[in-house]
Design goal:
230 residues, 67% helix
Length: 230
């Protein structure tokens, strides 16, 4: 997971230092930030980390062993989810801290870090919830993150707020792409205040993890694993 997060920035940084006398232009590193991390890396690590939070224990039949000790079952998604979130967040922080070497303005680093971490927190909880609620949860999560999210450019304001990309861009205080004259259906992109983005993403993550815990409390789990539910 760490290698997946680090690989794009390492390649860009070494490329900028070796093949160019000057770091990448400001606009280029912003596009890299939004396209490589906001639209590709974050959804991928959410799709990879979410199954490891809960579903792996259900499929490998290790969950009953974890429940031998007296602990509320709702604590499982919170505990494992926080571990995966913390592990990936460390590498996301390192990645953005390295971006000034490729041309990112050093003063914008804190906001860029906050944007990636909070968006990943919300995405991880969202994907974990879909995996528990839907039989093809990974597929629906992938469709949302890779089909619905890129359409933000043509969404009216009301629908732009039903995407993670909107809050990532508002938190990062930058736009991945601007509307061109040839984009006849393009809508005007809107911004949400920093404080509101923080509240919405944090609350959404807490809500999804809470529902995950409630779903587990309602799920019969036997020593034979998921097969025993029938």
């Amino acid at each position: 997971m760490a290698a997946l997060i680090m690989a794009p920035i390492v390649v860009l940084t070494f490329g900028a230092q070796i093949f160019s006398k000057n770091p990448a232009p400001w606009r280029s590193i912003l596009e890299f930030y939004h396209s490589a991390y906001g639209r590709v890396v974050l959804p991928i690590i959410a799709l990879l980390a979410a199954p490891a939070c809960i579903n792996e224990d259900l499929e490998q039949r290790t969950l009953p062993l974890m429940l031998v000790r007296p602990a509320p079952i709702w604590a499982l998604p919170i505990g494992k989810g926080l571990l995966w979130f913390s592990w990936c967040s460390v590498w996301l922080i390192i990645v953005v801290a390295l971006m000034p070497m490729a041309g990112l303005d050093l003063l914008t680093v804190p906001r860029k870090i906050l944007a990636l971490i909070l968006t990943f927190w919300a995405q991880l909880g969202f994907v974990s919830l879909l995996l528990l609620l839907l039989k093809r949860g990974t597929l629906w999560a992938a469709l949302f993150l890779f089909v619905w999210e890129p359409l933000i450019k043509v969404f009216p304001p009301a629908l732009q707020r039903i995407t993670f990309t909107h809050y990532l861009e508002s938190l990062a205080s930058s736009r991945y792409s601007s509307n061109n004259t040839i984009d006849l259906l393009a809508q005007v992109q809107i911004s949400t205040p920093l404080w509101l983005c923080v509240i919405i993403l944090t609350a959404f993550g807490i809500l999804t993890w809470g529902i995950c815990g409630f779903r587990l409390m309602c799920t019969p789990i036997g020593l034979a694993g998921r097969e025993s539910e029938g």
